């Protein structure tokens, strides 16, 4: 007040100083010149434009408005830019997914089908047969491929094989590395892979499947990243609207992707169907440029955001500094509201997958709608869902602003309308008979109800845990996607006997039941209140020795899977049909009664896929044994290398090099026997390093009182790897889509390379080198004297080792164990197929069974052994001798 009074009292203006100031006169004349020109333009320009340049009145108005100098600065809220770019990101990704369904029809040579009018299979709605008109006149452009329905199904589902793992990983990555660059890279890589699809298709179905798997890996992180970005950029009062607008990109992408792809496939532009992939791939690149230029990681980091908008976004959010970046996994998995969100999303995804994958089939099989016409009808429910999303979001945010209801009540109401309304509409379809207009109307109402869900459980993901919303979204999406993927399987099983109205009604009833059950669970256990584990998040510490044991276990799973897969693959690789026929016809067969057995478990080499080679038994024996000749060399020196260069490096290099060589095996086989033997010998060199190295790792990381358990847990990877490899190899040898026996080496080699990356990132040589290990765990590991020995002393007492009777006792015990194990791993599949006449897949399963029992026995024995040692009722030597003897 005192400052204001002084200003009002001191109103004296220094007129003389102003008028004698040259700078003031400079400004004055500058303004006169500027205003004079502007006045002439604004008053005389219309006459000049109309009279001289002959412009219309509308064009003149446009010029005047453009030249006006009083237009205020145009500010676009940055959260709106984020919303728009997030919307287009999902639209592009889902357009890519939807377009493949249409493009697949164009790039595959479909066999001629009997006209619907000439069959009695679809008599359920015979009054609708006139809907089927001129379907075959719809000609698609581009190269055609002879892929059966199994191959096509594998191409579609292969996307999920990569999508689910990175979906779980996406939440963790978003917490550590942020969202801007990860999300941008996700869309960019998906677009790049989409551009490569025409080339991959020309190389074959395997290349196509590989591209799809990699695309799933890149897209899996998009939903968690976008959810975490939403928690950063959306004000609490606008959250429903922003969430709904962004996720509206899903139905819009479905609407745009399918019809536009159908149009592009039918015209001769860039080769027909390849233009679908080129167009959406280029659009993705353009989006990436806008995203990188216009967006920042968080609002406070944006260079041109206004203070008003920043305060608006941050209002209502937790002001506590986020210093703890550890994810409270235990609290998240024990949170009922989180699981309620997962269950609600399962009900949503189950119905969504059903409609998006099986609805076109329903249109054609029951309603007999023309494929081209059905494409636009299929898109209609998604258009309705889009408008529902926007409307529901506005209503939900208004209810929140009025404070008449709690946020939990709002989320439960909208989620209930979404799931229960969706279910009631599907039940109504079952009562609609053969009236397509009524059925399509109920489908549109079902998708209208579906729009409510984005203001229900979808927004609740951010409400209950804004900080870790990316992680919660990862868990919810993975859980719902895995559960929802059963929807097409159930539909396929129920329509296996025929596409009848009765069978399809069963599908609608099951989908309705899932939606109702999930909706009830969310009503009872769901919440949108901020969970306590965010406000007081305690550190979730995973003991680092358990991580070593876990990855060590999977390391040995890979070691034995890579070692024994050839035992099964060899049966499929060798052309021994004639030899088997002679054995079967011989009167001296050891098991003649088995030959008369006629079931799926008997040996039939004709269904084993892949190129065959005429190798006799001697050549096969050389190939199998070449691994062990080289293995013997490095297994002797592996202990020295582990001490000299580090056990972590040696174990990782052993598994990693063997994985790479396994990937090269099919190429070596085509070159001849000698290259094949060389590759197998080099694999033996690599694997020879693994056992000494993992023993060293266990000795460095396992406390004395846990040594039996950790050792058994790690080394149980050997029988488990054998079980998995033998069982899966037989199935892959029969798989036409995977290319037969070469897929055995490609799959296990790729898994080994992936494991190597995890090992290098998460494992450290010794406990004291680990940057985040706790003092308590470090003390527990180093409490025994042998673990406190200096790691710098690399002198190995060779003389004392070789003159130690206990060492030779351990050696002979190991020889006896390994000799029998080697016979079982290498010769048992041949015995089962050659003598007992089992098929390859049954041989693999039966060979793996003893190894599975071995793993279970090892875990039980380790627990008992540690208890006996800790109770001190028996000496360690007595315990070891007793278990070795058994």
UniProtKB/TrEMBL annotation:
It is found in: Basolateral cell membrane; Cytoplasmic vesicle, Secretory vesicle membrane; Cytoplasmic vesicle, Secretory vesicle, Synaptic vesicle membrane; Lysosome membrane. Keywords: Cell membrane, Cytoplasmic vesicle, Glycoprotein, Lysosome, Membrane, Symport, Synapse, Transmembrane, Transmembrane helix, Transport. GO terms for cellular component: basolateral plasma membrane; lysosomal membrane; synaptic vesicle membrane. InterPro entries: MFS, MFS_dom, MFS_Na/Anion_cotransporter, MFS_trans_sf. GO terms for biological process: carboxylic acid transport; monoatomic anion transport. Receptor for CM101, a polysaccharide produced by group B Streptococcus with antipathoangiogenic properties. This is Sialin. It comes from Larinioides sclopetarius.
